Amino acid sequence: MKKISITIIAIIIASASFAQINEENKSGTDRKETRHLINNRKSSGFYSTMQVSLLMGNHQYAERYVPYSGYSSSSSMLPGWGIPYPMVDTRFSVSPSFTLSGGYRFNEHWAAGAGAGIEIFDHNLYPLFAELKYTLWDNRISPYLALKGGYAFGDLKAKHHEKLWLNWRPYYIEDATLRNFGGRMLHPEIGIKVPLYDYCDLLFSAAYRYQEKRSVARRDRESNQFDEWEHNEKLNKLSFGVAIMFR
Hints:
Elements: H1 2-39, E1 45-65, E2 68-71, E3 79-81, E4 85-105, E5 110-119, E6 126-135, E7 142-153, E8 159-165, E9 172-197, E10 200-220, E11 226-246
Antiparallel strand pairs: 1-4, 1-11, 2-3, 4-5, 5-6, 6-7, 7-9, 8-9, 9-10, 10-11
């Protein structure tokens, strides 16, 4: 009986030792394969990036407000309404942004390129920008810095409105056109780069966005005359985004 017990224990110990050796070999192989996927990266070459971000900050809104004036003067039984006027309010807003960019990596640290995108504000903007990037490490999780600058385009042509409500003076115009021209933009960015494969990285970013906007409202009059109102606005937003970069 003792011999049988000793034999069984010996078999169990041998099996456990063999399984542990196999597991260590397998783990070592997996680590080598993972390291192999990342260590085969090229130090220079072209890249392309797809980024989705959320721009956050305060923004002014104008709403049509019709005050209730109690009972009308013509009848003591019928309620009356006053003259409508705009109410301008400042609210926290979140605007989605989608950009595509591409360029060239000069080495494992420096890269430069250009990009374009669309941003959903109260009036859509279409940014066109150049970018410069610096990455601390290339083959592992690394912080990076980026600077983007350019011009965000607005409407291609003016749009006619029977009743135009604005969040700037004169606030309300009838039978007028409005065109948004966009303006200059600056976008410094910091983030974390996570290597996925030798050809792909995942990027998480936080940024500050400075954006200029110019809007023009116009109402035509007789004899080729017109009234025109121009408004210049400067937006300051925080941006949080995620991107995937192919290289």
